[in-house]
Amino acid sequence: MNWFERLSLFTPWDFAAIALLVAAWLVIGWWIEHPGKHPSVSRLMGQYRRDWMVAMVTRQPRIFDAQTLSTLRQGTSFFASATMIAIGGAFAMIGNSDQLTGLANQLTLESDPAIVWEIKVLVIVAFLANAFLKFVWSHRLFGYCAVLMAATPNDHDDPVAYHRARQAGEINIFAARSFNRGLRSVYFALAASAWLVGPWALIFAVLLCFSVLWRREFASQSRKVLMEGNARSADTPS
């Protein structure tokens, strides 16, 4: 069976649902990272990360900073391991296509061939693989940030101190951005699993995932708290 014949096994609604999945993933990612006049939680946290690195310069000792960064690295390690396990489980499902086909046909009451379900699982794997790569890169960037923090002098009069602190802040932001991209890929991998039920289930899951991500970044209580913190900082006389 060639690829054209395999694609013919899917309906136009399947292609529309997949197009919506990819478009929603790209759009919400761009929107969060380029929010314009209404900053997202991720963008607001970026400024707090910069402030953290500046405050670190004169903190004695820096045990708190080291522990905080270690916690962030542990989070990236956990999610990288979890996605690797999930990818292995997905490939195991593909390898045992008979049971996968039987279970999927029971869910949808349709008798589609195994290749249909294998392709659907591969879409999930694609998002999980992207998440894994983002988590690994985030872990490495947090390591770079740790080195820059260690290389930052404690003397605020040292001309190098605040320059190094700003560098550490930017690397910290890059690491967090990669981590957030990995999380979004995990969310959309969960949404992609709804395709096993059918295209309409996938469309509903994508819209739900998009709305949840949007609410958390632009309409959540945590964003309100962060915005209040920025407003008070701006009102504080220098």
Features:
0% strand; mainly alpha; 238 residues; single chain; 9 helices; 81% helix; elongated
Q: In this structure, how is the largest beta sheet organized?
A: none
Number of helices in the DSSP assignment: 9
Low-confidence stretches: 234-238
Estimate the mean pLDDT confidence: 87
Secondary-structure element order, as H and E? HHHHHHHHH
Percent helix range:
over 70%
Structural class: mainly alpha
Brief summary of the model shown:
With 238 residues, this protein is an all-alpha fold. The chain contains 9 helices and no strands. It has a domain at 45-197.
Could you give the topology of this structure?
Elements: H1 3-7, H2 12-33, H3 41-56, H4 63-95, H5 97-108, H6 114-150, H7 161-192, H8 199-218, H9 221-235
Helix pairs in contact: 2-7, 2-8, 3-7, 4-6, 5-6, 6-7, 7-8
Could you characterize what this model shows?
The chain has nine helices and no strands. The longest helix has 37 residues, at 114-150. It has a domain at 45-197. The chain has 238 residues and is mostly helical. α3 runs antiparallel to α7 (161-192).
